[in-house]
Amino acid sequence: MGVMHIPGHEHQGPREVSLDEVRSVLGDCRRCPLFETRGNIVFGTGNPRARVLVVGEAPGKNEDEQGEPFVGRAGANLNGVLALAGLERSDVYIANVLKCRPPANRNPKADEVLACSPYLREQIRSIWPDIIVTLGNPATHFILKTEIGITKLRGRFHQMGHFLVMPTLHPAAALRNPAWQRLLEEDFKMLGEYLAEHPSRATGEAAGHSDALPRLED
Ligand code: URA
Questions:
Q1: What is the CA angle 73-41-181, rounded to 5?
Q2: Taking the CB of the first residue and of the last residue of the chain, which one, N or C, has fewer CB atoms within 10 A?
Q3: How far is the CA of 27 from the centre of ligand 1 (A)?
Q4: Residue 63 near ligand 1, beta carbon < 6 Å
């Protein structure tokens, strides 16, 4: 398996903070203008000790209404490809870069990402997964600190400090493009193979050690 090493991510390690604590610091967030138009904050959902963290872009309409990530058509597609990896939704943790819906689902703005990203960073430090799956360009660019397009990055794992990052296509985009859907499915099968071949944590170390974490606030 080709693994690309990403330098410069030797900063923060895991932290003994619960997701509930992170959520309570977020509170009724007004740190960016999206609070004015949101219905619900969509913090994240799933297994707080997940081996796999799935990171999307931002809540859409259904997510904004229900307060849960990936509950619309894209969510059904995500559930389907997770199954290809031998995973149920409840096995993984699912969160977004932005916790509030941008109006008309426009792309996240830089200042919104800046305001919101400390919460994703703390979620990552709390969960301390082995693998971070990034869905689509905004999530991938944010986590991998690159502007390279997702179609060039997908199809392999990228080592980033402690984490293996698997960038892949966004399940909503894949619904509009059958070729992308096949690539999305291929990637999740690759994830399933990796998990089957590596039944314990990727590095063989327990959580709570001094591995690196990307500076997600950058
Ligand atoms: N798209 C995303 O990126 N995240 C969601 O939660 C739903 C759709």
A1: 25
A2: N
A3: 21
A4: yes
Check pocket membership of 59 for ligand 1, CB cut-off 6 A: yes
- 210: CA distance to ligand 1 center in Å? 31
Question: What does the pLDDT profile of the chain (218 residues) look like in tens digits?
Answer: 445 444 444 457 888 899 999 999 999 999 999 999 999 999 999 999 999 999 999 999 999 999 999 999 999 999 999 999 999 999 999 999 999 999 999 999 999 999 999 999 999 999 999 999 999 999 999 999 999 999 999 999 999 999 999 999 999 999 999 999 999 999 999 999 999 999 875 444 444 433 444 444 43
Residue of 64, 77, 96 to mutate, ligand 1, most atoms within 8 A of C-beta: 96
